[in-house]
TrEMBL record:
It comes from Cloeon dipterum. It is found in: Endomembrane system. This is MRH domain-containing protein. InterPro entries: CIMR_rpt, Man6P_isomerase_rcpt-bd_dom_sf, MRH_dom. Gene3D superfamilies: Mannose-6-phosphate receptor binding domain (2.70.130.10).
Length: 1287
């Protein structure tokens, strides 16, 4: 195709041409007949982006393209030319740089020509390319009624940028009468003709003016002068515009539909904008917008302007079985049901499943995305929509399969809108929908008996073997049985013993022939899964269904074992099963096991290629073993391209592709092979590409025999965790583009003197002070790694007779891990990287390498190298914390309106915070600082949060960086908020980077829960809850003379306990104001002349975090209208002796602040519950110790509480003995870290602290009416409406 563009410039002069403004072109075709092309459907809100790959780096980047007008929504750095409709720019790191400001200009003479019957847009720009020539975009548009794809790059010849575009807009339009209809994707048509009024709409304008207007039809003759007027002003002598039905409705760049009409002289004088509003009336009233430059603008909000919403017609049962209702979906027809009620037999119901009704029905029934409609068989104009297609079917907790359409037309009671509710039931014969009832609030209920609602029968096989009847492949899981030991799955308060395809070696509570045994904390064992070797295969998933002993009277436990594919780990890691409760307290459990035996045969090829100049390209970091890459289409529907790199797509239920395919297209529930893995990457004129060939049969008339896929890679050092972009398909070749750091050439370099510049801040990092000495670290097996920085190892540490910068010493051998290099790289997140290559041989054609990632860790953490892991058996990963990698650490505090939040005490320097989930995921976090390096965890140096899955041998897999600490915490109403951003690409939405949100919640009782996992958003934001006193706001306390009432202690604290007068430099402090020098004041200052200035007496006290702040005021006059004042912050210091001593923190004119810490102030806060932490080594903040005797009321309350707990204990013991398994789904109000239960403190308006119970794994049975309160003036009060709820 590129050759066609080489000849295009010479052929333009003799080709038939058409010049037009806007998007409509009329041109004489090859047969002499006029042809009209309408490109308005290609006009979008955001610019189209086209990756440009060229031999010249000055012409390689991203082309921003707009059709029918100038580019919008771009920054000046991306495109400074406001008139440009095509602009080429490149992103270097986080900065955009414009390469060609105007590759095409909106005001230039854009021309349409026909070449061999194909329309070609010639779009000249304003930016000079060479003397006498400007850049020009050559856009060839290929007609395909079923495709709406993105433009793609064809080639760059001289000054011409050649693009291709497969689209329905490239098909000529010859029909008239399109003023109110417009084709959209998927065969859908916008049809606005039902909005036409029989006469006219009367619309109020500004300044009291009135207009007559009609939609999709001319105004009746008696209202406007002239013939076929489109609109006029009331009582005017001329119309605003004439109605012309041949003028095309088009898409506007801002997302609405627009229709224009012209006056008699041919100029546009009327514009009507149609906005999607599914809730607007079917016959809506137009609104006047404005008059500007001779054009009158009107707006119409209507459901007829709403595009179709793609809906997946699949639902999943609680056991994970897929039910597909798409066979019931109609394309050009519908299901019809007559109302059986005697008074309503004239009513007909039109229904479609997961798709809109067709245009052949009465107009209200195809208003936008209507999926069901009620009509009168005698009068079709009385039809009413019953709801829009917006959501897929769902399975309720009762097992019903339901499809609901909402937001239909208004009911007779305008508070409600009509909706339809369809309950699908399995039946061996198709019965179609049957009307059941219509409620007073306009809910129409139907029953539908159909084979489509039946669960598909899975393939089954005995002895842990099953044949996939589709691929004719036999899965054999017999080898997953561990013949030596059972697998142990440890939880917080219980554990599981697991072995599949064979019995447990040790009986479970004397019961033999068991697959899964639950072991409670007290040692009680329950056989929750008896042995079953009958393997099932259905829709890409392998499973074993196990039943066990009774857990409730008449209810047996069950385990659904799901076996998922995971390609073999080249490092020899062993996968381990994960078991968790369903969370419903109904004795159902799930066992998930990723295992290579659950994979069909797959193919893997070498993933490297070397250029003629010796540069090595290695795409193996993009090759995945357990999850696939996903490139979605521009349509935004569930379809997309699933692919892997240099290996087959990982087989699973959502990737039910052929076992040898490297890429496959998912269209709803269909999977189409786009090419098999055959060869590794290639270099085509220095462009890195990967080809998958011999896919499904190609049905294009002039295409090849089989479908193929071509992935073009572009080097981008900053794209660490990027995802591929789907460009489109032409002649059965699917094109993808991938900007990634893995595509960057690896060239041996030297002489960069171990320094690098941060391109954003211009700060230069220099690691040369680490050079000239050897550094050591070890792995878990005591193998020693000796490393040099930007230099060779010393003569005493040479290994393998190779001059090396990294060496591995084991008990049996010494291996060179790479030669020295001084090229220091600056990576995403501020990490610095050194790469050593050319070590000892490692396999065929490879040598050992070392990657050292330097980062700025937490202050006080151990500096030096730390072994992380070895990738592919050849690449050693080292993380190294050093102050030399620090530029400016993020402040871990913030202030607002004089209030300060400081989270720095939570910074970890020796080990990370952890939050573990029962499904095997582990979250690692630090506060305001990068994670502390640890063996086997490779989340990218510098990341502050990470998630990984732990295998049986301790190896971490599927690491995902959850962001970097780049901003300080912000204060919120409940405490503080900390955000980490810029993590790895979100697996579900590759265009979005993973991030972390930590909500620090005030806990005034000093409890530090550590991070507790809360939820995960579709955009991969991982949320955590963290209770700590560090974010508690100030709470004013009562002052009575020399005593302060501390609400947390429920009593007064005497300040006499700190002794009498104390000297602090030139200041004297006596908190009770009894000192000899201050004349009854608490704080005073001696001047140079020997006189004393009073700073006042105690006026208020505020409990703020770990400090009791005393405020003194009313002192002597300091300056005009101002007096002296002071603050004394009382805090706990358990290491001090006696009363401690105050120190001056800050001094400013007329004011001083002192800090006074003492062990006498470490008072026990015995009103706080003991909460478990998410890991045992999280430090608990110092708590106050109560120095005063317990009150009588507290003693009485304690006796009452003891009685309650005694009765509760007796009931618990009885229940545990009778039904031990039931106790797993019961929780006392104190949560366990294993279940990830959370206790949230929130301050009420009255100042009380309420505890809200939440639970994630498994579900806690606790009534909402039960409350646990910490009263301000009382001890704990348990409001137990039903005491059994707490058991």
């Amino acid at each position: 195709m590129l050759a066609r563009f080489v000849l295009l410039a010479a052929g333009v002069a003799c080709a038939a041409t058409a010049v037009s403004s806007h998007c409509l072109y009329t041109i004489t075709g090859d047969n002499g007949d006029p042809q009209t092309y309408d490109f308005s459907s290609l006009a979008t809100i955001d610019p189209w982006t086209v990756p440009i790959v060229s031999d010249s780096t000055q012409k390689s980047g991203t082309l921003f393209l707009s059709v029918c007008g100038p580019l919008k929504g771009l920054t000046k750095a991306q495109c400074p030319d406001e008139d440009a409709s095509g602009c080429l720019a490149r992103k270097d790191g986080d900065q955009w740089r414009t390469l060609v400001p105007s590759a095409a200009a909106a005001t230039a003479n854009t021309t349409l020509v026909l070449r061999d019957g194909t329309p070609v847009l010639i779009m000249p720009g304003h930016t000079p390319c060479e003397p006498g020539r400007n850049y020009t975009i050559i856009l060839e548009l290929l007609c395909n009624q079923d495709k709406v794809l993105a433009p793609f790059f064809l080639g760059l010849t001289g000054c011409e940028i050649a693009l291709g575009w497969i689209t329905a807009a490239a098909c000529p339009t010859t029909k008239t009468g399109r003023a109110c209809s417009l084709a959209a994707s998927g065969g859908y048509w916008f049809d606005l003709y039902p909005l036409a009024n029989d006469t006219a709409y009367r619309v109020a304008g500004t300044d009291g003016r009135q207009f007559y207007l009609n939609l999709c039809a001319p105004v009746a003759g008696r209202f406007c002068p002239g013939q076929k007027a489109a609109a006029c002003e009331v009582k005017a002598k001329t119309s605003l515009a004439r109605f012309d039905d041949s003028v095309t409705l088009r898409h506007a760049p801002n997302g609405y539909l627009v229709s224009t009409q012209r006056s008699d002289n041919g100029s546009v004088t009327l514009e009507i904008r149609y906005y999607c509003d599914q809730l607007a009336p079917l016959r809506t009233q137009p609104k006047f917008i404005k008059q500007d430059n001779g054009i009158t603008y009107f707006a119409v909000h209507s459901p007829y302007a709403c595009p179709p919403v793609p809906v997946d017609c699949v639902a999943y049962t609680r056991q994970g079985v897929k039910i597909d209702l798409s066979p019931l979906r109609k394309t050009n027809s519908y299901w019809t049901v007559r109302d059986p009620r005697s008074n309503y037999t004239h009513q007909l119901y039109y229904i479609n499943v997961c798709a809109p009704l067709p245009r052949s029905l009465p107009s209200p029934c195809h208003a936008g995305n209507v999926g069901a409609c009620i009509s009168n068989s005698n009068r079709s104009d009385l039809a009413q929509p019953l709801g829009a297609v917006e959501h897929p079917p769902r399975v309720t907790k009762d097992g019903d399969l339901i499809l609901t359409y909402r937001d239909g037309s208004l009911c007779p009671d305008p508070k409600n809108r009509r909706k339809i509710h369809i309950n699908f039931k399995c039946h061996d014969v198709e019965r179609g929908p049957e009307f059941l009832v219509a409620s007073d609030d306009c809910v129409y209920s139907f029953m539908w008996l159909t084979p489509a609602a039946c669960e598909p029968k899975p393939d089954q096989g005995d002895n842990c073997r099953v044949l996939d009847s589709r691929m004719l492949y036999s899965f054999d899981l017999r080898s997953i049985y561990n013949k030596m030991n059972d697998y142990e799955v440890q939880m917080e308060s219980y554990s599981y013993r697991v072995n599949l395809c064979g019995p447990l070696h040790k009986p479970c509570n004397n019961v033999k022939n068991v697959n899964v045994c639950l072991v409670l904390k007290n040692g009680t064992e329950i056989a929750i899964g008896m042995r079953n070797d009958r393997l099932e295969y259905s829709d890409g998933r392998l499973s074993l269904r196990l039943t066990g002993q009774e857990c409730l009277p008449g209810v047996k436990s069950s385990v659904t074992a799901i076996l998922a594919c995971e390609h073999i780990d080249p490092d020899g890691g062993v996968t381990q099963p994960h078991v968790f409760a369903s969370g419903a307290g109904d004795c159902n459990y799930y066992l998930v096991w990723n295992h290579p035996r659950a994979c069909p045969p797959y193919k893997e090829v070498p993933c490297t290629v070397q250029s003629e100049d010796g540069a090595l390209y290695d795409l193996s970091p993009l090759s995945r073993r357990s999850i696939n890459h996903m490139a979605r289409t521009r349509l935004g529907n569930p379809s997309g391209v699933l692919l892997n790199v240099c290996r087959s797509v990982v087989f699973n239920r959502d990737a039910n592709c052929e076992s040898t395919s490297g890429a496959c297209l998912r269209e709803g529930d269909k999977f189409i092979n786009l090419g098999n893995v055959q060869t590794g990457p290639t270099l085509d004129r220095n462009v890195l590409k990967l080809h998958y060939k011999e896919g499904a049969l190609c049905h294009a008339p002039q295409g090849p025999v089989h479908v193929t896929t071509t992935i073009t890679f572009l080097c981008d050092e900053g794209a660490i965790e990027s995802q591929p972009e789907y460009l489109g398909e032409f002649q059965c070749d699917h094109a993808l583009f991938w900007r990634t750091s893995a595509a960057c050439p690896q060239r041996p370099v030297s002489g960069h003197n171990c320094s690098v510049l941060n391109p954003s801040s211009k700060f230069r990092f220099d690691l040369s002070p680490l050079a000239g000495q050897d550094h050591e670290t070890t792995d878990d097996f005591d193998n020693k790694f000796v490393l040099a920085v930007c230099s060779d190892l010393s003569s005493t540490n040479k290994c393998s007779n190779i001059t090396s910068a990294a060496c591995l010493t084991t008990k049996t051998e010494e291996l060179s891990l790479g030669r020295s290099s001084s090229e220091l790289r600056f990576l995403h997140g501020g990490t610095l990287e050194l790469r050593y290559k050319g070590g000892d041989a490692c396999g065929v054609g490879r040598t050992r390498e070392t990657i050292i990632e330097f980062f700025c860790g937490a202050e006080g953490s151990l500096e030096g190298p730390r072994f992380v892991e070895t990738l592919q058996g050849c690449i050693t990963i080292i993380h190294w914390h050093t102050r030399l990698a620090c530029e400016q650490p993020v402040a871990c505090s913030n202030s607002l309106l004089g209030l300060q939040t400081d989270l720095s005490p939570l910074i970890r320097v020796t080990q990370n915070y952890r939050a573990e989930l029962p499904d095997g995921r582990i979250y690692f976090l630090n506060v305001c600082r990068p994670l502390v390096p640890q063996s086997k965890l490779n989340c990218g140096a510098g990341a502050a949060a990470c998630v990984a899955r732990k295998l049986a041998g301790g190896k971490m897999v599927e690491e995902l960086s959850l962001g970097y600490a780049s901003t300080s915490p912000t204060m919120t109403a409940d405490g503080a908020l900390l955000i980490y951003s810029g993590g790895s690409a979100c697996p579900r939405r590759p265009s979005v980077n993973a991030s972390t949100r930590i909500d620090f919640i005030c806990d005034p009782y000093g409890v530090n829960s550590g991070p507790i996992f809360d939820k995960e958003s579709p955009e991969c934001q991982y949320s955590f809850i963290w209770h700590t006193s560090l974010v508690c706001g100030p709470e004013e306390e009562e002052v009575n003379g020399c005593k302060v009432y501390v609400s947390q202690l429920k009593r007064f604290l005497s300040l006499d306990s700190l002794g009498g007068q104390v000297e602090v430099g030139k200041y004297t402090i006596d908190l009770c104001g009894r000192g000899r020098d201050c004349s009854g004041n608490a704080v005073c200052q001696r001047s140079a002349e020997g006189t004393w200035a009073s700073y006042g007496i105690l006026q208020k006290a505020v409990l703020y975090g770990d400090y009791l702040k005393l405020y003194f005021g009313g002192g002597a006059t300091c300056m005009t209208n101002k007096t002296y004042g002071a603050e004394v912050w009382l805090g706990c210091d358990s290491k001090s002796n006696g009363t401690g001593a105050p120190r001056l923190l800050m001094e400013r004119p007329c004011y001083a602040i002192f800090e006074w810490k003492s062990d006498a102030l470490c008072l026990q806060r015995n009103a706080s519950p003991t909460l478990p932490t998410s890991q045992p080594d999280i430090p608990v903040e110092p708590a106050l110790q109560d120095a005063m005797p317990a009150s009588h009321s507290f003693a009485v309350a304690s006796l009452v509480l003891c009685s309650i707990f005694t009765v509760a204990a007796v009931i618990v013991i009885f229940v545990r003995r009778r039904y031990p398994l039931l106790c797993l789904s019961w929780r006392f109000p104190w949560p366990s870290s294993a279940s990830h239960t959370q206790v949230h403190y929130s301050r009420s308006k009255q100042g009380d602290f309420a505890v809200k119970q939440e639970d994630l794994w498994p579900k806690v049975i606790l009534e909402k009416s039960n409350k646990l309160k910490i009263q301000r003036n009382n001890i704990f009060v348990f409001l137990l409406k039903n005491s059994h709820s707490f058991l």
